[in-house]
Amino acid sequence: MDFDVIVIGGGPGGYVAAIRAAQLGFKTACVDNFIRDGKYSLGGTCLNVGCIPSKALLQSSENFAELTHSFADHGISCTNPKIDVSKMIERKNGIVSKNANGISFLFKKNKITELHGTGSFSNQADGKWQISINDNGNIQQVNATHVIVATGSSPRSLPKIAIDNKNILDNAGALDLTETPKELCIIGAGVIGLEMGSVWKRLGANVTILEAMDKFLPSADEQVAKEAYKNLVKQGLTIKTGIKIGEISNSSSGVTVKFVEGGENKEQKFDKLMVAIGRVPNTQGLNAEKVGLKIDERGFITVDDDCRTNLSNVWAIGDCVRGPMLAHKASEEGIIVAERIAGQHPHFDFNTIPWVIYTNPEIAWVGKTEQQLKDAGIEYKKGVASFIANGRALGLGNNVGFVKMLACSQTDRILGVHMVGPFVSELISEAVVAMEFMASSEDLARIIHAHPSLSEVTHEAALACDNRQLHG
Ligand code: FAD
Ligand code: NAI
């Protein structure tokens, strides 16, 4: 089979790249090897064991937490509320299947050939790349002028600790527990640790998160990280920082974790242990050495700003290349690569990639943190506005947190926006649009925001940049 473009990997990077390439008129194929419930399933980590299932469980567990903790304030009561964890997992699986089938439907609609198995480079001949596809030992060769590698990432493991997804879990295992563990330990207070810790805490587990770094969420703005930490601890999550993990033993009765805390040797037994210490790129199975595809010492495919590798007509995107491991970053790279293949000149700005952590309160940011501006010697002004008295937040019963806007002292251009509070996953888009359009804080201050709405807090933060906040 001959194609103009073959995409290796069908996650949010790869499948979006394939759709955009097909829209631009290229004869396109996408090969993926993800297997869920014994069947090939498009959507990669994000859809099968990442973004989507975790958000489904975050919502279910949030509903339960509201029912058990805050609905009484609304005058709503119910006796003996229960959570059926298996049903919750079934609902989550239904959402994943629906979306995965949706991608196959989009492939058909766009006349993209869906191939199953592991793709690897076998050769280059007559200006075409030969890609070998191994589907359980059945080998198929396809040829394509352009190759987009979008093979994603896998969980980083701790040396000598075997993930069995029974007692010792990675993200896939933590998304598939059929009952709430009594004692859950999570190694790594990063994005996955905090989100999955929140899910199981809300459903009744005692959750202990052990983090190696002294600082909590070092990539977030310090003020935001402090506010998030305060609230998460208030909800009952135990978060220990500056921890050195020692021996871990797994037995039928649970997992014993030895660790050093503040110079003291400690040992604790848990029902389940989740390891969430970052992710590593999937680049081993590509036969990269055979064709000379350059891979760096950490396993990432080396690319330039336009996602070009060192080989002609071979591109790489998403988690298997530099930059944040985020689904929307992967998708956007997929779009720009397809458009570059078509000779267009799309633009991609790393500085306006939003980050969201779906805890309660949610955390979201775009652009530079206050610490980054200080370190770079950039003079800035800041406006901070709280959700505390916002009418909509009060109505929701969720009025913790704030919005912080940072703008250049000289030009007033917005340099960063940092949020912690209700639905900031949605509010951050306004800040992204503003930054993409190089807006000033005054621009946002002069835009009419609906009342009552959470977005009024962003408005107030913009007003506060010029010391003219109305409700602060
Ligand atoms: P992937 O989604 O990993 O897809 C790569 C695909 O390629 C996989 O299907 C893989 O099996 C396949 N593959 C690998 N090698 C080959 C090969 N040789 N041949 C064929 N196929 C191959 N990001 C967010 O932006 N928001 C979130 O809320 C979010 N939540 C997350 C929650 C969890 C628990 C996890 C683990 C991750 C989360 N992420 C989130 C990160 C997000 O999932 C990744 O950034 C995103 O999936 C990367 O997309 P990708 O297309 O580069 O790779
Ligand atoms: P992470 O990089 O966010 O966090 C890993 C944490 O583990 C860090 O705080 C690190 O210091 C700690 N750590 C590393 N080694 C350790 C050790 N030996 N002992 C104790 N702690 C240790 O990685 P995580 O949480 O695994 O997630 C991977 C990526 O997936 C994220 O970086 C993010 O890009 C993506 N993701 C995004 C989400 C979102 O956008 N909402 C949700 C979940 C994941």
Chart the SSEs and their pairings.
Elements lengths: L1 E7 L5 H10 L4 E5 L2 E2 L2 E2 L3 H6 L1 H20 L14 H25 L3 E4 L1 E8 L2 E8 L2 E12 L3 E3 L12 E2 L1 H4 L8 E5 L3 H12 L3 E5 L11 H13 L3 E3 L2 E9 L2 E8 L2 E7 L1 E4 L3 E3 L6 H4 L22 E3 L10 H15 L13 E3 L4 E6 L2 H6 L4 E7 L4 H6 L5 E7 L5 E8 L2 H13 L4 H5 L9 H10 L8
Parallel strand pairs: 1-2, 1-8, 2-5, 8-19, 10-17, 11-12, 11-17, 12-13
Antiparallel strand pairs: 3-4, 6-7, 7-8, 9-18, 14-15, 15-16, 20-21, 21-24, 22-23, 23-24
Helix pairs in contact: 1-9, 3-4, 3-6
This protein binds flavin-adenine dinucleotide (FAD) and 1,4-dihydronicotinamide adenine dinucleotide.
Q: Which range does the strand content fall in?
A: 25-35%
Low-confidence spans: pLDDT under 50, at least 5 residues? none
Q: How large, in whole angstroms, is the Cα Rg?
A: 24 Å
CATH topology of the largest domain: FAD/NAD(P)-binding domain
Helix content: 25-40%
| CATH H-tier superfamily of the largest domain | FAD/NAD(P)-binding domain
Supply the CATH architecture of the largest domain: 3-Layer(bba) Sandwich
Look at the structure and give the mean pLDDT: 97
Number of discrete domains: 3
For this structure, what is the CATH class of the largest domain? Alpha Beta
What structural category do the secondary elements indicate? Answer: alpha/beta
Number of helices: 14
Report the bound ligands by name, code or SMILES: flavin-adenine dinucleotide, 1,4-dihydronicotinamide adenine dinucleotide
Seen as an oligomer or otherwise, the chain set is: single chain
Give a count of the beta strands, DSSP E runs of length 2 or more: 24
